[in-house]
# Entry
Amino acid sequence: MKAFALLPLALLGLAACASTSETYPSRTATEQLLLARAADQAVEGLTLPIPAGSRVFVDDTYFRAESSPYAVSAIRNALSDAGYALAPSKAEADAVFELRAGALSLEQMRRVFGLPDMRV
# Structure
């Protein structure tokens, strides 16, 4: 009988030994997927007015944004798929493909109907 009384206390002690942690990346997973898909769609069928097989250097000096590494990678992949060779430097390239971005972001709006979530 005494063992049954101690069992709930032991379970309570085990249940209290838990902790949670949350990470807050700068972008949510949904935002990351939206930007990645937008970059992929933007470069679908990308071709340049130069002969296939030409060596192209992708210059991303003026292409700075939080998600720019993925977009640059998508552009390089599209150029490679289109039959162009990627040059490691401007000196070794037949053409320079300069990237610039006016905006590479998402617009957000949140609305709450009813009572907002309250944590106690």
